[in-house]
Amino acid sequence: MTLSHDAPSPESERSTVSTAPGGNRAPIGIFDSGLGGLSVLRAISAQLPHEALVYVADSLHAPYGLRDNAFISERTLAIGAWLVSQGAKALVVACNTATAESIALARERLAIPIIGVEPGIKPAASQSKSRIAGVLATQVTLRSERFRSLIERHAADCRFICQPGHGLVEAVERCEIDTLEVRALLARYIDPMLAAGADTLVLGCTHYPFLDAAIRELAGGRLALVDTSAAIAKQLERVLEAQGLRAPPDRQPAAPRLCSTDEGRHMRQLASTLLGLDAPVEKVSITTHGTSPGCSYVA
Ligand code: DGL
Fold first, then answer.
1. 175, 205, 259, 295: which is the annotated catalytic residue?
2. Per-residue pLDDT, 232
3. Relative to the CA of 37, which ligand 1 atom is closest?
């Protein structure tokens, strides 16, 4: 594992990327609290088919949206360091919650380019005609400083109705994407947005794109859904390009390496049904040694 202690900086300014032993042939590490980041992996596979991908789902500890900041930072650093130890040349934090709480620290500690995800406030603000948009995200994301400043920067003239999606991450983790319970939760969260005149809904958690069919059925075409996965894949492409880290175009596309901190049954099921990906899931043990008082977790 390679650690650096330089000041946080944008990916394009970093110069420590040569630490990935495989150079441009090294894999890209992707992680999420659980299965949601597979929606980002899907977009990355489509945009960058020649890249090798290693995905870690921290399903043993999902949802992060109910955890405290120290826990989320500890897990982000431990999983990021593990992916670096597996040779990752770049890291995608495919979790809005982990990005909101810990991306600055991860950029400070891990010597590879790091791409985070955040709710699509900017695209929602530019496309909403009614100037009212809903945002579904975890409580941690909605309460974060990063989210507040995102709203401030991009949406001064747009009203955002922010709703924590309690219970939705857990449902996706159980591979329940269209059950009566999920529909009832979605109706509870989305009906008030529709009643308030929202015409756009930001999916501010990477688990939620897997609920898009249920959301579309409920909203009946009245809401444009904003999912940033494709934009993240393009941003990753730009960063790799700028750092000379793109995989060679003659490299044969291969199935991603899927890893989970739990037994991985649901990951296999979701990857197969929603991504058409029949790949084995490795169980990995990623231990967190607390760096904050009172934090020590074993996966
Ligand atoms: N996929 C994560 C996100 O984008 C879910 C967080 C959670 O585990 O609560 O925020």
1. 205
2. 98
3. 1
